[in-house]
Amino acid sequence: MSSIIKGIKNVFSKRIAIGHIISIILICYCSIKIAEIVMSLNLAATEEELLFFQENLETYPFLFWLNCLPIFLLILLFYFITNHTLFSIGLWGGVFYSLAFANSMKIEMRQDPVLPSDIKLIREVMEIIDGFDVVTLEEIQSKVRLFLLVMLLLLLLFQNKKMNTKFRIGGIVIVMIAGFVVNHMYYANEREYIKYPVLGNIYFSVNQYNSKGFVYCFFHNVNSMKIKKPNGYNEMQYAQLEQPPSLEETQTENLPNIIMIMGEAYSDLSINKHIDFSNYVDPMKTYKEIISQEDTIAGHIVVPNFGGGTSDTEYDVLTACPTRYLNNTSPSYDFVRKKFDALPRRLSQIGYDTLAIHPGYFWFYNRYNVYPYFGFDNFIHLSSFDPHGQSKGGYISEQATIDTILYTLQEHIQQSDKPLFSFTVTIQNHGPYQDKYNETEQNFDTDVFLTSKEKNMLYNYFNGVKDVDEEIAKLVTELDKLEEPVVLVYFGDHLPGFANGMDFFEILDYDIDIEGTTEQRLAIYETPYFIWQNESAKNSTKILENKQKIALPKPNIISSHYLGAMTMELLGLEGLSPFYDYVNNMRKELPVVTEGAYLQGNGKYKEEITQGESIKIDYLAGWQYYKLFDQKIE
After folding, report:
1. 20 to 30 A Cα–Cα from 582, which one of 308, 361, 459, 563?
2. CATH number of 572's domain
3. Residues 6+ apart with CB under 8 A from 335
4. What percent of the chain has pLDDT over 90?
5. pLDDT tens across 54-69, in order?
């Protein structure tokens, strides 16, 4: 034992000492090399995206340094803290390499980059890694082992010359001041951020990362996590408005069960002049039949994101608050940290039981906490399903999900006299789509040339849509058999984010264009919705009578945050919430409200709003801020 200790002492006594000037040179050099490696580690980017980024670096050389400075400053800070140059370089090199790799994988699998808020989702990262193939897993494990070995060798073989305490403290202070100044001048500076060109949709975060670099975008997003108070915000103004439901007795008679479903990546992309299903099964046959019925209310909602951001659409529909006016890249659920005056809470106050269903991990997007905050009584998640026997395409199947909706509704009808509000988020048709359903063969014809990879992705996506359509057919058939009234609200969370980004939309000539008209720009975020009722509900609700009152514009397009409140108005539940009443009135004037793209009640699109309309939007944003941060619910 003593010989081992003596040997360790000998190793430590023979460590190579590095001087401070050499240390600074090494830190500068290695920071540049790490930045180059991180910028090149974009495995999900197309050749066009890589070329565009390279051209950006050549046109705007400072963009490279914006991707290098955080690495340099963090290494330098740890150099002063630890007085160990190579350890600091190795540590932060490993951290940034890991983040860049995770970013590449997340973009490939979810069409969504790594955001600062993702650091909290370490469990999701581990679950994703567990899903990798054996070769990839072994490669990751070997890299981790190599990294740990290198870090150990750096500690054993190298050391720094002793650093004066005042010099160390001074260095720490100077680096922190420099970091604060640099952050304020560049990373927190929105004007600086938007001056660099972006390939594709500027509102799609993946495009921002691919065009400007991971490190720069990540640290810019760190600065945008805080929610600012909206213009003219006054807490007391909103506190005086909040009241419990004030409904007449006649309004709460014969309340229907409400089944609300948000379909994963559900869209009507199959309706395209270049896509023909004549020789195949139309993947939206049931959808087209439902929306053609006179009793159905159908159209499109404009959701917060393209290709991802599922929870943001949930938040919009369930709260009537617009994610877009949080002006933040983090998921809206990140800011729900207490009881919230949402739709399920209001419905429970007038006699509803409430249930949330999502066949995914309970902790993802913090749903396990957010759903109770919203007022849901129960939450059925992945643990109630069989991942082996009920999966399709890597996720719990649409069939298993719809079966659960029907079972829980029928069970509730047998056990309770109260109506049920059931909200479900499906998951089967989540991307990526290449080879998602291995048995998929050609399921449409097209007069447009598509590569084998592009065909593969579309075949698989439409195969998933067909499964959804078949389950919707089963659902409405079973609901129509019930004597109890049921209202079904079905909508999509976002358009699918294919691995080729927006290419499909250009190739197949969809009327979608980020540089186009207001209508074309809004189409990037449009997903279908329909509101259907069974025969029993038609006889007991006033939906058809109220259909005229809601005054939808001719295209039947509304912002997603209007959908839940509009459903309440259709049911004749004015007075359920002062906030919903305000939102419903605003919807009639401005059915679509986004930054720089609006739809008026007369069905006309515009890019600018009047001062009066701007005041109403600020008022809406202020009320949202109050509900998130200042409202207290017992």
Report:
1. 308
2. 3.40.720.10
3. 227, 326, 328, 628, 629
4. 65
5. 999 999 999 999 999 9
